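Lab notebook page, bench 4
Experiment: in silico fold of construct C2
Operator: M.H.
Input chain length: 320 residues
Purpose: comparison with the prior construct
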Amino acid sequence: MASKKTARTILGLGFACFLWLTLFCPDRYSGGLHEITTSVSLPSLGFLQASFPKRSQKHADYYASRAAHDFYAAHSYTVFRPRSPTNERKVYDLIIVNSKLNFLEIRLNTLYNYVNYFITIKSPKTFQGNKKPLAPHKGDVMIVADVDEIPRPKTLLVLRSCNYPRRLTLASKFYYYSFQFLHDGPDWPHPQATYYQGWRTLSPTNLRNGDGGFRLTRSGEKGVLGNAVWHCSSCFPTLAQFLNKIASFSHGWMNRDEYRDKDRIAAAVRGGTDLWERDTETFTRIDKNTDVPPMVLREPERFGYMTSRDGPSAGFTDYP
């Protein structure tokens, strides 16, 4: 009697698994041998470069497109269906790196427009089981910066070639909205650079905030390298990104409806005036500024908003 009950239980579980695989995972995979074909062109992945919120819709349109259907059908696979129309499927490329840096460069260049995140992986041991040196060497340069704080190449040569203070501020001119508007006032006091000292190395937070380490010697460890970085705050290509930044401010008053008005934002950005009308925040207009990162000048069709906010759109791609 028990054996029959056990058999029924196993049969029931097997049937349930069959239903689950059939009803809920019809497109999970397709077995067998498949091969990349060159007879069908690669569909455009323009949605990867699109900005939100348009990006989510373009991503959904891509899955529903005939080009995507034909491409996957040619490879004997079915089209992946995200759980929701706006749920973007991302690609993480995990790369094992040893010493073939030339192939790493080729790989990054080849897959740049198709991968969301590149993650490099390095084993702590060689194939023979020998330990690898995983840490930087003592004296190696370390920079802690926001993404919009771009060191000048000459700055990196100075750091590579010279002895410098343990807490070095890479000061910069402070541009706002674009490299067309220079903030009146002192230089921007970031990012920071230090050098590797093993366990004595300053943490990124301590380096950025100017604390940590031994209090009595802290002031003697500091130095400033002027005009070392390009920095532009709130240099956004879309008004949606500007609004998102406002929403993230810790000061609630800066996120009032009156400051989220799109016309008001565009007028402030176009004219180089402070959105919140603060007396301390004024800017000097610099037209045709060429002291910018080289790529900004090389690709004006992509980065024109970084050098000019003139015109009805104020350089935003989603306004008016």
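Observations: The CA atoms of residues 63 and 72 lie 10 Å apart. The chain has three domains: 41-89, 91-134, 137-320.
Next step: discuss at group meeting.
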